[in-house]
Amino acid sequence: MNGFLPLVVDQALAAAVRAPSPQNTQPWRFVVDGSRIEVWLDRDRVLAVADPAAREARLSCGAAVGNLTLALRVNGVRSRVRILPDPAEHDLLAVVSIEGNTRPSTLDRRLAEAIYRRHTNRRPLSDREVPASARARLRSAALGEGGQLEFLDASSRYAQVSALVRRAETEQATDPDFLAEAVKWTGRSADCPDGVPTSAFGPPADVPGVVSLRSAHENQSIPPRPFEQDPVLAAVLTRDQGAAADVRGGMIMERVLLTATAEGLATSFLSQPFEARSTRARLLAAFRDLGQVHTLLRIGYGLPTRMTARRPAPEVTTVRSAPEVPAL
Fold first, then answer.
1. Residue 216 has pLDDT above 90, yes or no
2. What is the sign of the dihedral through the CA atoms of 281, 284, 285 and 286?
3. Distance, CA of 104 to CA of 179 (rounded, Å)
4. Is 126:302 a contact under the CB 8 Å cutoff?
């Protein structure tokens, strides 16, 4: 990175890179140009086998946008987001424009603090029930970003989605190209700035559950443990579809994840049916009456796990000209 950034923008970019991404690939780049912060897709970090259309990568960049705008707001800076602002630049996913001052809410502060605690929990969750009040706040978080969160245990989709997750996991476990890609990004040391370290893996399940977690994220060197048999599953949806909806879906997803963290809940992703060729169309069809499904979340209570590292924000940021942040 070159140039000087005001502290508030520096902090917002540091929050942006804490967003989740498939295999912790971190497929984003940022360009600061005056009062604009551009969010670009980094094609070199898109998973060619698991995510050939870059759908999950755009979702991750949307999550980064959500963190960035929240961090600006909690520091008293009002911003406006334009998604896919330039038809000639397909990889320019969003532009965040600094527009003035604002007064952050108590909820803004609570969620901003959760940015640095949120992490994917691949370990067993307890059988403690997620209360209706927490579910309502998670739904409200999605609605506040213009999306929807659907809990599957209240619908007939649970069995169908669980079966698709298991089928996709089986397909991926026998796909040499997928396995090679997974090996490239997993099993890294704890201090590696990208990829998934072994320290973030979960134990093998001693008894297969209704839903399979990624076998690529199992630590075979530790004893098997029982996982919850009927995990709470939820789907993040938008009414529209396409690349812009993917970015917006990422913003919705991150708001839900931060809310879950603030509520003391653990979360992880069930991405397999989006990635496997034999299941993606069926998964989309299962939610067609509600809209476009963007991600599946496993939600519950569990012990905290080690957070994965990120590349420093300066490493993924270019400064064309430093912004003038409004005086507070």
1. no
2. positive
3. 45
4. yes
**How is residue 136 written in tokens?**
């309502």
Burial label for 199, CB within 10 Å (0-12, 13-18, 19+), is middle
- Residues 6 or more apart in contact with residue 100 via CB below 8 angstroms: 77, 78, 326
Residues in the chain: 328
289, 299 in Cβ contact below 8 A? no
Closest CA to 27 of 14, 12, 15, 44: 44
Q: Mean per-residue pLDDT for 61-87?
A: 97
The CA-atom distances, in angstroms, between 194 and each of 56, 121, 185, 257, 308 are 16, 17, 8, 20, 8
Distances (CA, A) of 314 to 17, 64, 117, 154, 317: 10, 15, 21, 44, 5
Half-sphere exposure of 153 (CA within 13 A, CB side): 14
pTM for the full model? 0.94
Largest CA distance in the chain: 58
| pLDDT score at 2 | 40
Q: Please report the sign of the dihedral spanned by the C-alpha atoms of residue 315, residue 117, residue 146, residue 211.
A: positive
* CA–CA gap between residue 30 and residue 319 (Å, rounded): 8
Measured CA to CA, the distance from residue 199 to residue 309 in angstroms comes to: 11
* Cβ pair 125, 298 in contact under 8 A: yes
Q: Are the beta carbons of 19 and 60 closer than 8 angstroms?
A: yes
Give dist(CA 184, CA 66) in Å, integer.
28
How far is residue 302's CA from residue 122's CA, in Å, rounded to a whole number?
Answer: 10
- Rounded-to-integer distance, Cα 30 and Cα 317, Å: 5
Nearest to 216 by CA among 269, 166, 167, 178: 178
What's the average model confidence in pLDDT over 152-180?
91
Structure tokens given for 146: 């213009």
